[in-house]
Amino acid sequence: MVGELLQPGGYLKLLHLGLQDADVSARCFHNGRFIQKMRQKLASLPNVRVEEGTVTCLIEEKGSVKGVKYKTKEGELSAYAPLTIVCDGSFSNLRRSLCNSKVNISSSFVGLILKNCQLPHENHSVLILSDTSPMSIYPISSTEIRFNYLNTVVAPQVPGGMRDALVRASSDKENIRRMQLRSMPAQNFQTKPGCLLIGDAFNRRRPGMTVALSDVLVLRDLLRTLPNLNDTNAVSKSFQRFYTRRKPLASTINIVADVLYQLVLSDPARKEIREACYDYISLVLEGYLKMD
């Protein structure tokens, strides 16, 4: 889907993690480029060795996770460690062995990149609550705009210049990307010694980057207090504290995200509520523009 929208709280987490040189102050950017910069930063650390492969399964012995099996061009290999962190995203193939949470698919995102599209306010996102669905349009580079819903019914509701860019971009169907809107509540998690499940693999919502960075920050501070990761009891206690400490921020964003998605559903009964929400957001954004 290319685009990433990082909330101000997520940007502050980057600063706390010492990753301010990732330079994402605009908060709207290419997800892939951002991740690559994070990996480059990781690989530059003297105590880190990076290996690339596709993890196929966890290695378990007597109910404890000892590492992973993974595939590379050379074949299938194994990696062992006192602590394995599972963070393989919303389409995790390791999640089912660690928890029984139900995956809910409520709808889909449709993404399209618009070239040389003029926004009403430079370097600001545009939110359109149309009659059929919400549209989020924001810059991810100096010449590219991410358009977050495409349909011939709603396209006419896009303002002038952006509508022309949409028509040009949609002429090539290969430009259109589709992604399921998946919700995975953090329930029925079965803690296994030696393993920790975090990120979208554990608790999926939109937006998720801020929560992911917050989880990393909480986990970092907890692991710093442990003299030895081989102490199973101490590590397990840190895991329990991790899931407790992450809740205030994660739960707040989860609740707000769920309410907003329910609000923008194409339901005539919610039209007035949607309009009231739009008016409120407009007032907030107007205040930000005046500050700029």
TrEMBL record:
Q: What does the record give as the function of this protein?
A: Catalyzes the stereospecific oxidation of squalene to (S)-2,3-epoxysqualene, and is considered to be a rate-limiting enzyme in steroid biosynthesis.
Q: Which GO terms describe its cellular component?
A: endoplasmic reticulum; membrane
Q: Which residues form the Squalene epoxidase domain?
A: 81-282
Species per Swiss-Prot/TrEMBL record: Solanum commersonii
Which cofactors does the annotated protein need, by name?
A: FAD
Name the chain's protein.
Answer: Squalene monooxygenase
Going by the entry's taxonomy, the superkingdom of the source organism is recorded as Eukaryota
Pathway the protein contributes to: Terpene metabolism; lanosterol biosynthesis; lanosterol from farnesyl diphosphate: step 2/3
The record ties this protein, via Pfam families, to: SE (PF08491)
| UniProt-listed InterPro entries | FAD/NAD-bd_sf, Squalene_epoxidase, Squalene_monox
